[in-house]
Design goal:
Number of helices: 5
Order of helices and strands: EEHEEEHEHEEHEH
Number of strands: 9
Low-confidence stretches: none
Helix content: 25-40%
Structural class: alpha/beta
Strand order of the largest sheet: 1-3-2-6-7-8-9
């Protein structure tokens, strides 16, 4: 694994002062941390005490002159994706540990928000960390592996959002992930964005922000 040290754009809490929560955005293939940090500005009214950070993935993009990747593009080969996630996981794990320590926060104040390849990373790392985050929100992604899923009832709150017209990662990937996580005893909420391709619409953005607010407040209900 490369020794690239993760870093990226940050937003301080809108309310000022020390943060009470930390939201980490994990971008998709060929983008970088700047791609998702704007979501923090959208969610700041809902999460005024949250700090936001959006690290650049560790590798230069293999199929574009700019942008980053968490692992090589595999065109749907889940065994290659699982290997790529495993290779990238230590760098992300170390970043999360360092960022929580820097902010003076514990894991129950952490949420991971991924898009596409970033969702694969959020699920793989968020579900296997020794001290698991409070929540994971995954947009337009997939579950790369079921290896190391947490014991029954001990996982974070999970929301999966996917467009039904997604031409990059079909919406069926969300269904597969939801069923696999459910079989492992994890509670998963989900939403299909009608008429949306590989992206995040207004409804998905709103649902994600509300989900994080409820997860941090401990007011989520099953379903």
């Amino acid at each position: 694994m490369t020794t690239f040290e993760l870093d990226g754009p940050r937003l301080a809490p809108a309310a000022g002062g020390a943060p009470k929560q930390l939201v980490v955005f994990l971008h998709g293939y060929g983008a970088d941390g700047n791609d998702l940090i704007a979501l923090g500005r959208e969610w700041a009214p809902l999460l005024p005490h949250a700090a936001f950070v959006s690290p650049h993935a560790p590798e230069p993009c293999g199929m574009a002159p700019m942008g980053r990747q968490w692992f090589d593009l595999s065109m749907g080969d889940m065994s290659i994706i699982a290997a790529g996630v495993k290779r990238a996981a230590p760098a992300l794990d170390s970043f999360l540990d360092a960022e929580l320590e820097r902010q003076g926060l514990t894991a129950d104040s952490l949420a991971l928000v991924g898009f596409s390849q970033g969702t694969m990373m959020a699920l793989a790392v968020g579900l296997t960390r020794q001290a698991r985050p409070a929540a994971i929100v995954g947009y337009s992604g997939a579950l790369a592996t079921v290896e190391g899923l947490p014991p029954l009832g001990q996982g974070p709150a999970i929301l999966l959002v996917h467009g039904d017209m997604d031409e990059v990662i079909p919406v069926e990937a969300m269904t597969i992930a939801r069923e696999a996580l459910g079989q492992a005893g994890l509670q998963v909420q989900w939403h299909v964005s009608r008429g949306i391709g590989h992206g995040i619409d207004g409804d998905g953005l709103r649902l994600g922000g509300e989900f994080l607010k409820q997860a941090f407040e401990g007011t989520l209900t099953a379903g």
